[in-house]
Hints:
The protein is of the alpha+beta class. The chain has 14 helices and 10 strands. The protein has a 5-stranded mixed sheet, with helices on one face. The chain has a 3-stranded antiparallel sheet with strand order 4-10-9. It has a two-stranded antiparallel ribbon with strand order 6-7. Helix 4 (106-129) packs parallel to helix 14 (349-366) and helix 12 crosses helix 14 (349-366). The chain is globular. It starts with 19 loop residues before the first helix and ends with a strand.
Amino acid sequence: MNSTPTPPPLPVARPLLDPAEEYRSWITERPLDRITLWGDLHPWLVTRYDDARAVLSDPRFSSENFRPGFPGLQPTTPPRTPGQLFAMDPPDHTRLRRMLIPEFTFRRVEQLRPAIARLTSELIDGLEEQGSSADLVEHFTLPLPLLVICELLGVPYSDREFIHRQAAAFATVSAGPEAMRAGWGALFGYLQELLAAKAGAPSDDLMSRLATERVATGEASAAEAAGLLVQLLIAGHETTASMLSLGTITLLRHPEQLAALRADDSLVPGAIEELLRYLTIVHIGMRRIATEDVEVGGVTIRAGEGVVIALQSANRDPGTFKDPDTLDLTRESDRHLAFGHGLHHCLGQSLARAELQIALPMLFERLPELRLAKDPEEFAFVGRAVHGVERLPVTW
């Protein structure tokens, strides 16, 4: 009697620094195939660029993670949490996202560039003052985006240790659902209190505008506003911090590319796009569930079936990017999916780009002798939803 073989498990263990071989095998051997998630759940794994864009832009694929069969990060169905844009569909997603769009326009972010440059310079001053070696995560790559997002939101930077600890708890998938919910809940309660205080004493920041222009007018509930702020606070520093760390490591491991970047400032915008494509730090997959039958890449995905979109393999698809496993800072990489695609593309991508475009060139300009203090293979890579390193020991 023939039996259907069990699909292979979701590949989540990421090679430390060079994932090219693994990603290439996903695309060539399993472009669109079933995987096993949580024992008896068998969603589809989407690995090719065109298929990934198709799924992410198709409204027949839902982001609501409480739907039965949704391929979530944990085996338990999470509760509906106010303000979690990443787990919402229109019309609520549209209503809440529109409230934030004015805060992250290109023009608004351009106005922040002088402040970002000032904070970057001050942090490098601190590095220079402490000697000729440091942990770059502790003293630069984590503080910078956390400073920027706290200033933008109106959150006290003095609470940074609590903020990062809870954000890390929420993002650490291996910790389990209770720990993840506890991290979100701690930040949710903290920001609810700040939001209430801002309503009575507003200032020039995003939280004050939410309190006085959205919550006070009834456009959003206080719980929805707090949920939005939690998401912005977590995503606004975890991802950029990891990109700064891994971007530094990657450039130091490709000295010819770094030399070209140092010699020509005009390469900076394109270089950042290439680093975003090459690294693709959101590596656990975008999750969706079909609400009706949909054909993707010649395969019919039935209503109620889950989908995991592997952004990191889509960004290494040779059908879209020539020599995709090669870092080429002159490549036109603006089609990458590092920020997602469709309705849920990253709201803060302009801010992230500005921080990376300012911080990485300034770091290498101010510390021209910067080098890694140990073999990258010895680094402790974080086990969170965003790929990164716990520490980055450097000398100069």
